[in-house]
Amino acid sequence: MNPVTTAILVLCLGHVFSNAVRTIPAIAADVLQRDLGVTAEGLAQITSAFPFAFAAVMIPVGIGLDRYGVKAVSLTLLTVAGCGAALGAMATGPYSMLAAQIVLGAGCSGMLMCPITFAARALSTSRFALWSGIIQAVGNTGMLLSASPLALLVEVTDWRAGYWSCLMLALFAIAAVALLVPAARPEAPPSRGLLADMREVLGMTRLPRLRAVMVFVFASFAAVLGVRGLWGGPWLMEVKGLDRIAAGNILLACTVALTIGPALAGWVLRRFGHGAMLLAGSHLLSALLILLLVAGGPGGLASRAFGVAMLPPSWDVALLVLFGLLISFQIIAFSLVREAVPPAQAGRALSAANLFYFLGAAVLQMVSGAMASVGGVSAALASFAAGLAICTTGFLLLLPRRG
Q1: Which of 243, 257, 285, 288 is the most buried (most CB within 10 A)?
Q2: Is residue 187 part of a domain?
Q3: What percent of the chain has pLDDT over 90?
Q4: Rounded to an integer, what distance in angstroms lies between the CA atom of residue 151 and that of residue 328?
């Protein structure tokens, strides 16, 4: 394995951590609510602090990547994230868990951007399209840890063990990055100051070639975090009546699809092109799959159509696997961003896109919590379908027209 490939894969360990730690509530929501003394809506509000903190730190992370290099930023963020995992494991109430989510969100803010930025600088545009999918696929294996393995861990011990395990992963990643990632800093022009750099990052969101992507990603990761990271477990356990292990197995199947999907998306983009249409089509179909999932619940349209009280778990498995495969095409958005800017601005531009990924996740997660208080888990899931449809339509309308 060559040094570039090794460095990229080692940097992916941070993304594995990020995906594992932020999806713990999906399989442990009931015991988290009990031990923290909160409702489902309250837990949604607490965990929404993660993407809000993530978004708040995203601009400085992008600047740091361009100023100080990937290795320094990665080691700093992994240290912060490890502290957040320890805080999560020791949380005793809503406020201590809120603090943990804020620290975790800040620490995880560059876990995807570190390997993505390293790859954007080290690889050609065509190879980057493939590797961006591989990076996301490797990172998504973190969600494998928070599916069936976490379900078993919660049953044997408690949810705190999930956070302690994530701390161990962070410590391992720190050692691997320190040993195996080169410390070279990018050759960038002298800094004009932090405020000027921040204005440049925000200004990138208004570039004609990037504006449409920013609208698109606002709902894209929000749907993953909402379906797989928060409401998938309550849907399967509270609405469909499955036990924790069975729900964990279904979420595991969805996670396997989320792991395969990005690599598949990178291959499809490299083979056939038409990235914008692949993005739009995959996300409109993902919105439909969420609605079909809800329709298979008690008294849902699909359940009534089949003449049953509710459709069996096999319905949920099929839809969640398809959802995982299709929503993973979101990784193509990073290729569109990469093509729009020179390599020296890659960290800033990619971080601007990631800012919208997580700002949207924070906003839509809060919306889903409000919807859950009105219409239950079904309404919470449906809110993400609506977000996908609205943002994908905006993306298509804002795409620059070819002359």
Answers
A1: 257
A2: no
A3: 44
A4: 24
